[in-house]
Design a protein that fits this description.
single chain, 299 residues, alpha/beta, Rossmann fold, N-(1-d-carboxylethyl)-l-norvaline Dehydrogenase, domain 2, 6-stranded parallel β-sheet, 3-stranded mixed β-sheet, 14 helices, 51% helix, globular, binds nicotinamide-adenine-dinucleotide
C-alpha cells in the first residue's frame, strides 16, 4: 500500500481520496477550504496545514486543482511541492484538467529535479469519482505510468497511457469539447420534445437506446427525471461546474486555433456556456445550460 499526499479535495478530489483510503492506502490531504479537510478526516484520511506537509513522507503525490495557474502555483512556487519533495523522490501525478503548456512546464521542472511526473486528467465526472469508475488519460514516461497504474486503479476503471508529457491533457480537452457539444445537443432535443408535447421519459427511453444514445443523454440527461444520478435532479449542483467547462472548451479552442483545425460546433457551444455562466450558472453543473436555453427565445 502506498503513502499518498493528496492536494485539492474539491468535488473530484474528495471522493478520489476517499477511494484511495478504501483501497487501503494512507492518505494525507491538503486543501485551502477547511470543510474539505474535515470531509477527508471523516473518510479516514489525515490532514496537513500545507501542500508540502501533505507530501512529506509520501511515495506518491497527487494534485486535483481547478486550473493551470493553481497547478503552477502549487508545484513551482518557491517552497512549492517540487522543492519540498526533491529529496524524497516520490512519483508525482497531476489529475487536474489544465492547458498543455502548464502541464509540460510542471513536468519539465519535475524532471529537472530528477522526479518522474504524469499528467493524468480524468473523465467520468463526480459520479465516476464516487464510484471509482473514472477514466484516466495519462501522459508521461512508460515507467512512470507503470508505477502509477495500481494506484490509479483504486480510483478508476480505464487507465490509458496516451503518450509523452502533456498528451493526457490533449486527450482530455478533446473529450470535454465533445461532451460540451453533446450536452447542448441533448438539451435542444428535450426542449423541442417538450414543445411537441412529448413525455421526456418516453423520449429518454427511446433515444437512449437509439442513435442519439450517448453519455450526455444516458447518464447525464440535462432534463430532470429520466437519469437518476444526473446533476439535473439536484438542481444542477455540481458535478462539473459551468465555469470549469468554459475553461476546458476555451483550452480546446486555443489548441484548435494554434493547429488550424475548424471547430464550429465547439465555438457555438462555448458561446452558449459563456452566456449561461454570465447569467448566473457559473457554479452550477454545466448541464444547467439546459435551464439557460429554456429561457431563450428563438431568434
Ligand atoms: P473544485 O473547485 O470542486 O475543487 C478544487 C479544489 O482545489 C477546491 O477544493 C479548492 O479549494 C482547492 N484548491 C485550489 N487552490 C488550492 C491550493 N493552492 N492549495 C490547495 N487546494 C487548493 O473542482 P473539481 O470539480 O474538483 O475539479 C478539479 C479539476 O478536475 C479541474 O481541473 C476540473 O476541470 C477537473 N475535472 C472535474 C470534473 C467534475 O466533474 N467536477 C470532471 C473531470 C475533471
Amino acid at each position: 500500500m502506498a503513502t499518498i499526499g493528496f492536494i485539492g479535495l474539491g468535488n473530484m478530489g474528495a471522493p478520489m481520496a476517499a477511494n484511495l483510503i478504501k483501497a487501503g492506502h494512507i492518505v494525507t490531504g491538503y486543501d485551502l477550504v477547511p470543510a474539505a479537510l474535515e470531509a477527508l478526516t471523516k473518510a479516514g484520511g489525515k490532514t496537513a496545514a500545507s501542500a508540502a506537509e501533505a507530501a512529506k513522507g509520501a511515495t506518491i503525490v497527487i494534485t486535483m486543482l481547478p486550473e493551470g495557474r493553481h497547478v503552477r502555483d502549487v508545484w513551482l512556487n518557491q517552497g512549492g511541492l517540487i522543492e519540498a519533495v526533491t529529496a524524497a523522490k516520490p512519483l508525482l501525478i497531476d489529475c487536474s484538467t489544465i492547458d498543455v503548456d502548464s502541464a509540460r512546464a510542471v513536468t519539465a521542472a519535475a524532471e529537472a529535479a530528477g522526479l518522474a511526473m504524469l499528467d493524468a486528467p480524468v473523465s467520468g465526472g463526480t459520479i465516476g469519482a464516487h464510484n471509482a469508475t473514472l477514466t484516466f488519460m495519462a501522459g508521461g514516461s512508460a515507467e512512470a505510468f507503470a508505477a502509477a497504474k495500481p494506484v490509479l486503479q483504486a480510483m478508476g476503471k480505464n487507465i490509458v497511457h496516451c503518450g509523452g508529457p502533456g498528451s493526457g491533457q490533449a486527450v482530455k480537452i478533446c473529450n470535454n469539447m465533445m461532451a460540451a457539444i453533446n450536452i447542448v445537443g441533448v438539451s435542444e432535443g428535450f426542449l423541442l420534445a417538450r414543445k411537441l408535447g412529448l413525455d421526456p421519459r418516453i423520449l429518454y427511453d427511446v433515444c437512449s437506446t437509439a442513435t442519439a444514445s450517448s453519455w450526455a443523454l444516458n447518464t447525464y440527461c440535462p432534463e430532470p427525471g429520466p437519469a437518476p444520478a444526473a446533476p439535473s435532479n439536484r438542481d444542477y449542483a455540481p458535478g462539473f461546474m459551468t465555469k470549469l467547462m468554459v475553461k476546458d472548451v476555451r483550452l480546446s479552442q486555443a489548441a484548435a486555433a494554434a493547429s488550424g483545425v475548424p471547430t464550429p460546433l465547439a465555438a457555438a457551444a462555448l458561446a452558449l456556456y459563456e452566456q449561461a455562466m454570465d447569467a448566473g450558472y457559473a457554479d452550477k453543473d454545466f448541464s444547467a445550460v439546459f435551464r439557460w436555453l429554456e429561457g431563450q427565445k428563438r431568434g
